[in-house]
Amino acid sequence: QLQLIESGGGLVQAGGSLRLSCAASGRTLRNLNVGWYRQAPGKERELVAGITSDGRTYYADSVKGRFTISRDNAKNKVPLQMNSLEPEDTAVYYCKIGGYWGQGTQVTVSS
User: Fold this and answer.
1) Which residues of 38-69 are buried (b: 16+ CB within 10 A; e: fewer)?
2) What is residue 30's predicted lDDT score, i.e. its pLDDT?
3) What is the pLDDT of residue 81?
4) Ranges of residues in the chain whose predicted pLDDT is under 70
5) Is 80 in contact with 37 (CB distance < 8 Å)?
6) C-alpha to C-alpha distance for 50 and 101, rounded to whole angstroms
7) C-alpha span between 13 and 2 (Å, rounded)
8) Phi then psi for 95, rounded to 5 degrees?
9) CA distance 29 to 18
Protein backbone atom coordinates (compact mmCIF):
# COMPACT_ATOMS: atom_id res chain seq x y z
CA GLN A 1 0.00 0.00 0.00
CA LEU A 2 1.28 3.42 -0.93
CA GLN A 3 1.85 5.90 1.91
CA LEU A 4 2.60 9.56 1.33
CA ILE A 5 4.11 12.00 3.78
CA GLU A 6 4.41 15.71 3.07
CA SER A 7 6.94 17.91 4.83
CA GLY A 8 8.52 21.32 4.56
CA GLY A 9 5.62 23.58 5.39
CA GLY A 10 5.86 26.47 7.78
CA LEU A 11 5.44 30.19 8.29
CA VAL A 12 7.18 32.53 5.88
CA GLN A 13 6.95 36.20 4.98
CA ALA A 14 5.62 37.30 1.64
CA GLY A 15 8.32 37.06 -0.99
CA GLY A 16 9.98 34.15 0.77
CA SER A 17 10.47 30.55 -0.28
CA LEU A 18 9.65 27.09 0.97
CA ARG A 19 10.48 23.66 -0.36
CA LEU A 20 7.88 20.99 0.21
CA SER A 21 8.59 17.32 -0.16
CA CYS A 22 6.29 14.37 -0.80
CA ALA A 23 7.92 11.14 0.34
CA ALA A 24 6.43 7.82 -0.69
CA SER A 25 6.77 4.40 0.84
CA GLY A 26 5.34 1.08 -0.18
CA ARG A 27 5.76 1.60 -3.89
CA THR A 28 8.15 3.30 -6.26
CA LEU A 29 7.02 6.62 -7.73
CA ARG A 30 9.03 6.08 -10.87
CA ASN A 31 6.10 5.17 -13.11
CA LEU A 32 3.42 7.26 -11.46
CA ASN A 33 1.98 10.70 -12.04
CA VAL A 34 2.05 12.95 -8.98
CA GLY A 35 0.05 16.03 -8.10
CA TRP A 36 0.47 18.73 -5.48
CA TYR A 37 -2.83 20.21 -4.30
CA ARG A 38 -3.75 22.85 -1.78
CA GLN A 39 -6.79 23.78 0.21
CA ALA A 40 -7.28 27.17 1.79
CA PRO A 41 -9.87 27.77 4.52
CA GLY A 42 -13.33 27.94 3.05
CA LYS A 43 -12.14 26.98 -0.42
CA GLU A 44 -12.13 23.82 -2.48
CA ARG A 45 -9.00 21.76 -2.88
CA GLU A 46 -7.19 22.70 -6.08
CA LEU A 47 -4.39 21.25 -8.17
CA VAL A 48 -1.41 23.57 -8.19
CA ALA A 49 1.26 21.43 -9.89
CA GLY A 50 1.62 18.01 -11.41
CA ILE A 51 4.34 15.89 -12.94
CA THR A 52 3.95 12.83 -15.13
CA SER A 53 6.05 9.69 -15.01
CA ASP A 54 8.05 10.97 -17.98
CA GLY A 55 8.65 14.39 -16.46
CA ARG A 56 6.03 16.57 -18.10
CA THR A 57 4.77 19.27 -15.77
CA TYR A 58 1.59 21.23 -15.20
CA TYR A 59 1.08 24.40 -13.18
CA ALA A 60 -1.98 26.34 -12.21
CA ASP A 61 -1.93 29.86 -13.60
CA SER A 62 -1.72 31.29 -10.11
CA VAL A 63 1.66 29.65 -9.45
CA LYS A 64 3.31 29.62 -12.88
CA GLY A 65 6.78 31.07 -12.76
CA ARG A 66 6.93 30.80 -8.96
CA PHE A 67 6.53 27.07 -8.18
CA THR A 68 8.59 24.22 -9.58
CA ILE A 69 7.71 20.54 -9.28
CA SER A 70 10.32 17.87 -9.87
CA ARG A 71 11.02 14.21 -9.27
CA ASP A 72 13.73 12.49 -7.27
CA ASN A 73 13.19 8.89 -8.25
CA ALA A 74 16.28 7.72 -6.38
CA LYS A 75 14.82 8.99 -3.10
CA ASN A 76 11.21 8.27 -4.07
CA LYS A 77 10.26 11.89 -3.44
CA VAL A 78 8.54 14.69 -5.32
CA PRO A 79 9.65 18.17 -4.21
CA LEU A 80 7.72 21.36 -4.77
CA GLN A 81 9.89 24.47 -4.72
CA MET A 82 7.82 27.55 -3.94
CA ASN A 83 9.34 30.99 -4.49
CA SER A 84 7.97 34.51 -4.28
CA LEU A 85 5.28 33.32 -1.92
CA GLU A 86 2.17 35.44 -1.48
CA PRO A 87 -0.41 35.52 1.32
CA GLU A 88 -2.84 33.94 -1.15
CA ASP A 89 -0.64 30.83 -1.15
CA THR A 90 -1.59 30.14 2.45
CA ALA A 91 -3.17 26.69 2.56
CA VAL A 92 -2.67 23.08 3.52
CA TYR A 93 -0.66 21.42 0.76
CA TYR A 94 -1.21 17.78 -0.15
CA CYS A 95 0.37 15.38 -2.57
CA LYS A 96 -1.75 12.86 -4.42
CA ILE A 97 -0.91 9.74 -6.36
CA GLY A 98 -3.75 7.79 -7.83
CA GLY A 99 -6.32 7.47 -5.06
CA TYR A 100 -3.83 8.12 -2.28
CA TRP A 101 -3.42 11.38 -0.36
CA GLY A 102 -0.90 12.46 2.20
CA GLN A 103 -1.86 14.10 5.47
CA GLY A 104 -0.92 17.57 4.28
CA THR A 105 1.51 20.23 5.42
CA GLN A 106 0.51 23.75 6.42
CA VAL A 107 1.95 26.72 4.55
CA THR A 108 1.29 30.16 5.99
CA VAL A 109 2.50 33.30 4.24
CA SER A 110 2.36 36.51 6.21
CA SER A 111 2.04 39.92 4.58
Assistant:
1) beeeeeeeeebbbbeeeeeeebeeebeeebbb
2) 87
3) 98
4) none
5) no
6) 14
7) 34
8) -105, 150
9) 22
